[in-house]
Design goal:
This protein is of the alpha+beta class and 116 residues long. It has 2 helices and 6 strands. It is globular, with a radius of gyration of 17 Å.
């Protein structure tokens, strides 16, 4: 009985580790907050996370947003993420991909939405 319980616990831990790594967002540097304002060049509103490609002077960032269900509940429908729209995002750069950041909040047309 103890062996089966131990195996069950190990199986649960094996499932929890990838989830914790993903939801812990350890790939992003929370000590380097960025505030970027630019133009949306592309937008995705799909699971597991929405995204925009935000063009700022000299660079295009891939900005990871929240899951669509959370964005919808908090007042950021897909229709607000239109190509050509100006947006401001506050978030953290990816530790190994200099083109990516995850957003804590986004402001479009004067409306700020908390994403985390």
């Amino acid at each position: 009985m103890k062996a089966r319980t131990g195996l069950a616990i190990l199986a649960l831990l094996a499932l929890a580790v990838p989830a914790a790594a993903h939801h812990g967002w350890s790939g992003y540097d929370a000590t380097k907050e960025l505030t970027l304002t630019g133009t949306i060049k592309e937008a995705g509103y799909e699971h597991p996370h929405g995204h925009v490609r935000l063009e700022v002077p000299g660079k295009v960032w891939r900005v990871v947003l929240a899951p669509p269900t959370r964005m919808e509940r908090r007042g950021l429908p897909a229709s607000m993420l239109k190509v050509g729209t100006e947006a401001m995002v506050v978030g953290y750069p990816h530790r190994s991909d200099p083109q990516e950041m995850r957003a804590e909040r986004i402001t479009i047309d004067g409306k700020t939405v908390e994403l985390r």
